[in-house]
Write a structure and sequence with these properties.
Length: about 220
C-alpha cells in the first residue's frame, strides 16, 4: 500500500467520523496566502427594515445619523422595540439603507431572552426563520420570518480576497489573541466590491473571546 492509498483511506475515515458526529467539515482546504491581521468588530443586536415596514413603523423613510464601517451602511435615528413570546427589548438600533425584506440580527442570548429559536444564518438567508413583533411609538409590524443569529463572517473586497487566496462563501478559522485566546471556526468569507476588510462577531462571541476594540484576528493556515 503506497502513501497515496493510506492518505485516501485516512481522508475517508476522517470524513466518516465527521459525518457520524454530525459535524460539518466547514474549513477551507486551500492554503491561505496572507497572515495579515483582520480588525474584529462587534455587531450588537439590530434591525434591517424594508421600506414598507419602516413606513408602517415611523410614517417616513429611515433617517441616517452615522456612517458605519462598511461603506454605504448607516445607523438610523429610528429605534425599534422587539417583542417576543418571553420578553421585550427596547431601543434596538436600526441600520440602513432599507432592504428588500426586514431582518433582525441578535445573539443567542438575546434570542433566549425573547423566547425565539433563532438559527445561525448568513445575512439575507431568512427563509423559514422565526418571526417577531416590531413596535415604535406610532406603529407595529408583525414579521412572519426574519430573526437570525448572524453567522460569524469576514467582509472582504475582491482585492483582499485575492491577497488571502480566498473566495466568497469559503470558511476559515480565525485566531483571536486576547486575554482569553480563542479560535473561531466556520468563519464565512463574504466578498463584495463594496466591502471593507473586517470580521463581524456578536456579543456572545465577543465576551467569550475577551474581545475589546483593539483586538484583531489572524486566519489560520497562512
Ligand atoms: Zn457584517
Amino acid at each position: 500500500m503506497n502513501d497515496k492509498n493510506i492518505n485516501d483511506i485516512l481522508e475517508q475515515v476522517v470524513k466518516n467520523v465527521i459525518e457520524q458526529l454530525g459535524c460539518e467539515n466547514t474549513q477551507t482546504t486551500s492554503k491561505v496566502t496572507s497572515c495579515e491581521s483582520i480588525p474584529i468588530e462587534l455587531s450588537a443586536r439590530h434591525a434591517h427594515l424594508s421600506e414598507a415596514d419602516a413606513l408602517e413603523l415611523f410614517g417616513h423613510p429611515l433617517t441616517p445619523v452615522r456612517e458605519l464601517s462598511q461603506p454605504s451602511q448607516f445607523l438610523c435615528e429610528e429605534r425599534v422595540r422587539l417583542i417576543g413570546p418571553k420578553g421585550v427589548m427596547d431601543n434596538v438600533a436600526v441600520l440602513g439603507p432599507a432592504r428588500a425584506s426586514s431582518q433582525i440580527e441578535m445573539s443567542k442570548t438575546d434570542a433566549r431572552t425573547l423566547g425565539i429559536d433563532a438559527p445561525v444564518r448568513q445575512s439575507g438567508d431568512i427563509s423559514g426563520t422565526p418571526g417577531i413583533i416590531l413596535a415604535s411609538q406610532t406603529g407595529i409590524v408583525g414579521l412572519e420570518e426574519g430573526v437570525i443569529v448572524a453567522a460569524r463572517h469576514i467582509h472582504m473586497s475582491p482585492e483582499d480576497a485575492k491577497r488571502f487566496g480566498l473566495a466568497d462563501q469559503d470558511k476559515v478559522s480565525v485566531h483571536l489573541d486576547t486575554e482569553r485566546p480563542i479560535t473561531l471556526n466556520g468563519v464565512l468569507i463574504r466578498v463584495d466590491e463594496a466591502f471593507k476588510l473586517a470580521m463581524h462577531i456578536d456579543p456572545d462571541e465577543g465576551n467569550c473571546a475577551g474581545w475589546n476594540k483593539s483586538v484583531s484576528g489572524r486566519i489560520e493556515g497562512c
